[in-house]
């Protein structure tokens, strides 16, 4: 999961770049879904990628407009299976 906090005064630029250039995803990174806070200052995204370096490459394309936090997550089904199968 990736949390994007748009830099102060940069929200319009974020949406303009997205509208004109798309997500700018590197090959191997798959966008799943996203949600934006009502004040449009924070975006929560679920992405899939085989390697963290692919996400870092993508972050570099947006870091002038957005601050990022990356949180590795697994599905609740995966978590359940890992917990139940570890005993």
What proportion of the residues form beta strands (DSSP E)?
Answer: 25-35%
Kindly state the mean pLDDT as a whole number? 93
Cα-based radius of gyration, to the nearest Å: 15 Å
Uncertain residue ranges: none
| Broad structural category | alpha+beta
- How many DSSP H or I helices? 3
List the SSEs and their pairings.
Blueprint lengths: L1 E5 L4 H11 L8 E7 L5 E7 L3 H9 L5 E5 L5 H9 L3
Antiparallel strand pairs: 1-3, 1-4, 2-3
Could you name the key traits of this structure?
87 residues; Alpha-Beta Plaits; 4-stranded antiparallel β-sheet; 4 strands; 28% strand
Walkthrough of the structure:
The structure is a single chain. By secondary structure, the chain is of the alpha+beta class. The protein has a single domain (2-84), classed as Alpha-Beta Plaits (2-Layer Sandwich). The chain is 33% helix and 28% strand. It has a 4-stranded antiparallel sheet, with no helix packed on it. Strand 2 and strand 3 form a beta hairpin.
Condensed summary:
This protein has three helices and four strands. With 87 residues, it is of the alpha+beta class.
């Amino acid at each position: 999961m990736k949390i994007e906090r748009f830099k102060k005064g940069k929200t319009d630029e974020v949406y303009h770049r997205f509208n004109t250039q798309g997500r700018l995803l590197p090959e191997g990174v798959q966008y799943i879904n996203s949600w934006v806070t009502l004040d449009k200052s924070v975006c929560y995204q679920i992405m899939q990628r085989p390697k963290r370096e692919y996400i870092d490459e993508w972050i570099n394309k947006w870091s002038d407009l957005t601050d990022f936090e990356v949180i590795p997550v697994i599905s609740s089904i995966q978590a359940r299976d890992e917990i139940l199968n570890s005993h």
